[in-house]
Amino acid sequence: MIWGWLRRAWRMVPAFITAFLLALAVWVSAVTANDPNEEAVYPRPIPITVVGKDPNLILSPEDLNSVTLTLRAPRSLWNSLINEPDAVRAVVDLTGLAPGTYAVPVQIQIGLRPVRVVSYTPKTVTVNLERLENREMPVKLVVNGTPAAGYSADPPQLNRTTVIVSGPQSQVQKVAEVEAVLDISGASESLTRTLALQALDANGNLVSGLTLVPDRVTVSVSIRQRFGYRNVVVKVVLQGQVASGYRLTNIAVFPPVITVFSEDPQSVTDLPGYIETVPVDITNAKDDLDVLVPLNLPPGISVVGDQTQVLVRVGVAAIESSVTLPNLRVEVSGLAPGYAATVSPEALTVILSGPVALLDRLQPGDVRVVVNVQDLPPGTHQVTPVVEILLSDLRVESIQPETVEVVITRSTAATSTRRP
């Protein structure tokens, strides 16, 4: 009886399988209809990740190009494929590889399902594995330039004298020296600089692809003034007085500090800290002065360099004040024939400013207040008066009131009539 039941069940297996496959096909069709597959190029290149590399070997980053690929995936997965950082990876496995050059296959790893890789490029990359080398090398300091005249530089002091050069063996072997460059041109005081280090070959060319530890050094140099030399300021000596009504605004000298020298160092030490110029005559000066003036050097003292004169700049300006002119009558200009104009108010108050010497010379006719009514039609107008000053360099500070009323009317002068 049991055997009969088993034979009947066995005969029904094909029907069950057929039914399952039909159901699966219907389900796949329904799912595909609701979430169709889309084939597209992945929107950004995938960087290649290296795994399995011997830590004692080094690989040039230039050997690893990015991978571009085309994927086929349901529409609902594309957003996750694009936005999840590790959803798509390109990997090359260097496990067990010794130094040398290899063509290594690129493996595409997809972290989501169901996704199919349609195509990708490149499928292989050529890598050059080199042994990692570390070499300790001395730091060579190159000093360019010389200190300012009258100064000397002590030997430079570095915070460290060696550096570790690390990188591919072939590149490290090219390094002939590790160099830092210090410029002390014109230095007149001690200095401290942090300098970048460069790995150079035997021809002085930069060797790339290397790591320097550290990549910078700190250099200190003491700059000292030589015996018999001294920096002193320049003191300008003036002679005379500027013109009446004028004043000094500024006195400057270029250069303000000079370096002097003497074969008798004591005479330099005895200087008061400054050197005077020969007197600069400013008698009756009314404008700025720019003059080259010799220095009044004590016997046995000379200036370092070719400089024998200094530029002295003296600023001269007029002493200014102001004056109030009340009751200046307003004059009318531009009035057309046959018309009359009435101004209100008839007189204004004007405040002028400028050099005292010019204000003292003002005469009654030197200042006029004028309103121009040219092209104005008959009627009442508000007009801004203009102050005319015959003396230059005087300025109008205020006019009160700022506008006047002008009434323009036709003239009522009588006309004669001839009878026949």
From TrEMBL:
<dbReference type="InterPro" id="IPR053154">
    <property type="entry name" value="c-di-AMP_regulator"/>
</dbReference>
<dbReference type="Pfam" id="PF07949">
    <property type="entry name" value="YbbR"/>
</dbReference>
<dbReference type="InterPro" id="IPR012505">
    <property type="entry name" value="YbbR"/>
</dbReference>
<protein>
    <submittedName>
        <fullName>CdaR family protein</fullName>
    </submittedName>
</protein>
